[in-house]
Amino acid sequence: MLYIWISLYNSIQKTISNEEIALISYVIFFFLIIIVVFVLFFIMFQKRKNQLLLDKIKQQKEFEEELAKTQQEIQEETLKHVGRELHDNVGQMLVLATMQMKSAVKVVGEEVKSKVANASQYLKESLDEVRALSKSLNSDVIFNLGFDATVKNEIERLNKSGLIQANLTINGDNVEFENHKDEIILFRILQEFTSNTLKYAEAEHLNVEINYHKEFLNIEVEDDGNGFDLATAEQGSGMTNMKKRAELINADFQLNTQPENGTKLNLKYPYRTL
Predict the structure, then answer these.
(1) CB under 8 Å to 188, separation ≥6 — which residues?
(2) In sequence order, which ranges of the chain are alpha helices (DSSP H)?
(3) What pLDDT is recorded for position 68?
(4) pTM, rounded to two decimals
(5) How many Cβ atoms from other residues are within 10 Å of residue 237's Cβ?
(6) What is the pLDDT of residue 84?
(7) Which among 64, 70, 144, 265 would be 20 to 30 A from 246, CA to CA?
(8) Considering only CA atoms, which of 230, 212, 223 is closest in space to residue 268?
(9) What are phi and psi of 138, to 5 degrees?
(10) Cβ contacts of residue 116 below 8 Å, gap of 6+?
(11) Strand, helix or coil at 173?
């Protein structure tokens, strides 16, 4: 009889243990489900958050690019207008003045003839400068001349100014730009650099090197001027304009400078199609 009661007790004890184990298993499984659901929800939430952030960044970038393009178009139209005015109006007035001075040389006395001749020569040089400047400002002329010829025209204009000694080197076979607007942007970057050199660098020499490669165009511009500390320098409109323009055409923009050690610009432009 005692044996029977002991067996019954062990059976009940065993049954209780199995039920507890099952209950614990159910609880663990339930918590695992909750954890998995929470993790999945967190991942989806974070993914959605990141996507919204990326969309916002993309929209901001597109807005800035569109704004930069609009500003570029406005600037080009303004420069084109100024270039035409220089060529048509100022240029014509200088032509007339030069012709009148040449006529005056024939009738004035010997004592003032040399002075009048010098004045006539200065007018002729001014006319050449105005014509060269009008070419560099008018984007239609740049399209017709081509990139290399436009840069050569700018280098000649700088040398004629007497403010700096400029040198141009072109290496490799010329590649015709399929997207001609990029020619204008690259040229404007060069103009901005040379303008800053003349304004601030107090440089004596400016070297421009154009290297045509199969996949990209590499442009290096270097002056021997004062230079500056790039880390502490204010990001003025000139530097900002150069960077923004480079971004528009997906060109790699690198500006290196040190105080008393000149400034060097390196542009790497991957050829683009329309």
Answers:
(1) 75, 241, 245
(2) 2-85, 91-107, 110-137, 139-145, 147-161, 180-196, 237-248
(3) 60
(4) 0.64
(5) 8
(6) 66
(7) 144
(8) 212
(9) -90, 115
(10) 101, 104, 105, 108
(11) coil
Q: Locate 90 and state its tokens.
A: 């100022």
- Tokens 């040398």 sit on residue: 159
Please report, for residues 16, 44, 80, 227, the alpha-carbon distance to residue 87 in angstroms, rounded to integers and kept in the order given: 105, 63, 11, 35
**Which residues are paired to 265 by β-bridges?**
221, 255
Question: What does the block give as tokens for 227?
Answer: 């230079």
In whole angstroms, give the CA distance from residue 191 to residue 177. Answer: 19
Q: Is 51 exposed, middle or buried (0-12, 13-18, 19+ CB in 10 A)?
A: exposed
108 Cβ contact partners less than 8 Å away, ≥ 6 residues apart = 116
Q: What is the mean pLDDT of residues 221-228?
A: 92
Q: What gap in Å lies between CA 241 and CA 262, rounded to an integer? A: 20
Q: Under 8 Å CB-to-CB from 230, ≥6 apart: which residues?
A: 255, 256, 257
Q: What is the CA 80 to chain-centroid distance, rounded?
A: 21
